[in-house]
C-alpha cells in the first residue's frame, strides 16, 4: 500500500511539473479548438502557468494565468484560480470542474465595449459601434458539459455607454442584477446610474426553454441627444413616467 501511494504521489508530481506548452501540444490532438481562437505562447507548468495571447481577432486577452489548488483533487474536483488581462480590461475568478460540469465563482472584471459591436451587429443586422466599459461581478455561474447554463447570479453594468447605428447616442450608465430562482429562471432588475437614459424595469430568462420577457420603462434626461429621445418615442407613446417597452420571445 505504501508503495502504491508513493508511486501515485510521484506520478502526480511528474504531471504537475509537466510544462504547459508540452501538455497543450498533446491536448490539441483531442480538443477541438475553433479556428478563430488563437492560443499564444505558453509558459510555466500545468500547476502554475500562463499563456501570452488568447482569444479571437475581435477579443484578445494579452495574458491569462492560472494556479491549480492541489487539495481540491482529493475531493474529486479540479479548482483553478484564473486571472486575465487585456487592453483596458481584466478578469479574475475561480473555476471548479467536477462530474456535474463547470462552476465559476467570484468572477469580476471590466472589458471595453467596442470589440462587442460586431456581435451586436449580427443580432441587429446593421453595423453597430459600441463605446464605454462593461463590468461584471458574477457570484456564481454553473454550466454543464454541453455548455448549457443552469445558474447565473451577480451583477452586470455598462458604464459611459454609447451606441452608433446611423447616428451617435450617449446612454450613460446601465445596470442589471442576475438572480436564478428555484424554477431555473434568471431574473433581473434594470436600472441606470445617471446620464442621458432613465431606465427601470425587470426581465426574466428561462434557462431550459430560452424564452424571455422584458418589461421596462425608459425616458431621457435634459442632456440627452434628440436622436435618443426620438428613438424612444418610436417605441411607444410617452406616459407620465416614460415610455413603456415590453418584449418577449425565445433565444
From TrEMBL:
<dbReference type="GO" id="GO:0015628">
    <property type="term" value="P:protein secretion by the type II secretion system"/>
</dbReference>
<dbReference type="GO" id="GO:0015627">
    <property type="term" value="C:type II protein secretion system complex"/>
</dbReference>
<protein>
    <recommendedName>
        <fullName>Type II secretion system protein N</fullName>
    </recommendedName>
</protein>
<keyword id="KW-1003">Cell membrane</keyword>
<keyword id="KW-0997">Cell inner membrane</keyword>
<comment type="similarity">
    <text>Belongs to the GSP N family.</text>
</comment>
<dbReference type="Pfam" id="PF01203">
    <property type="entry name" value="T2SSN"/>
</dbReference>
<keyword id="KW-0813">Transport</keyword>
<keyword id="KW-0812">Transmembrane</keyword>
<dbReference type="InterPro" id="IPR022792">
    <property type="entry name" value="T2SS_protein-GspN"/>
</dbReference>
<keyword id="KW-0653">Protein transport</keyword>
<keyword id="KW-0472">Membrane</keyword>
<dbReference type="GO" id="GO:0005886">
    <property type="term" value="C:plasma membrane"/>
</dbReference>
Amino acid at each position: 500500500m505504501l508503495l502504491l501511494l508513493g508511486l501515485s504521489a510521484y506520478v502526480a508530481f511528474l504531471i504537475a511539473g509537466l510544462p504547459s506548452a508540452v501538455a497543450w501540444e498533446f491536448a490539441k490532438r483531442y480538443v477541438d479548438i475553433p479556428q478563430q481562437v488563437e492560443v499564444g505562447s505558453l509558459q510555466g507548468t500545468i500547476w502554475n502557468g500562463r499563456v501570452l495571447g488568447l482569444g479571437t481577432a475581435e477579443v484578445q486577452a494579452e495574458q491569462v494565468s492560472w494556479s491549480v489548488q492541489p487539495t481540491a483533487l482529493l475531493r474529486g474536483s479540479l479548482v483553478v484560480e484564473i486571472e486575465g488581462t487585456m487592453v483596458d480590461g481584466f478578469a479574475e475568478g475561480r473555476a471548479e470542474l467536477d462530474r456535474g460540469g463547470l462552476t465559476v465563482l467570484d468572477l469580476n472584471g471590466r472589458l471595453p465595449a467596442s470589440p462587442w459591436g460586431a456581435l451586436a451587429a449580427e443580432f441587429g443586422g446593421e453595423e453597430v459601434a459600441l463605446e464605454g466599459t462593461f463590468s461584471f461581478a458574477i457570484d456564481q455561474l454553473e454550466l454543464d458539459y454541453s455548455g448549457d447554463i443552469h445558474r447565473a447570479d451577480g451583477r452586470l453594468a455598462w458604464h459611459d455607454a454609447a451606441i452608433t447605428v446611423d447616428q451617435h447616442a450617449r446612454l450613460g450608465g446601465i445596470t442589471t442584477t442576475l438572480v436564478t430562482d428555484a424554477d431555473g429562471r434568471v431574473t433581473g432588475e434594470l436600472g441606470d446610474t445617471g446620464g442621458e437614459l432613465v431606465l427601470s424595469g425587470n426581465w426574466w430568462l428561462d434557462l431550459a426553454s430560452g424564452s424571455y420577457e422584458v418589461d421596462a420603462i425608459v425616458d431621457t434626461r435634459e442632456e440627452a441627444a434628440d436622436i435618443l429621445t426620438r428613438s424612444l418615442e418610436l417605441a411607444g407613446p410617452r406616459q407620465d413616467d416614460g415610455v413603456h417597452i415590453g418584449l418577449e420571445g425565445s433565444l
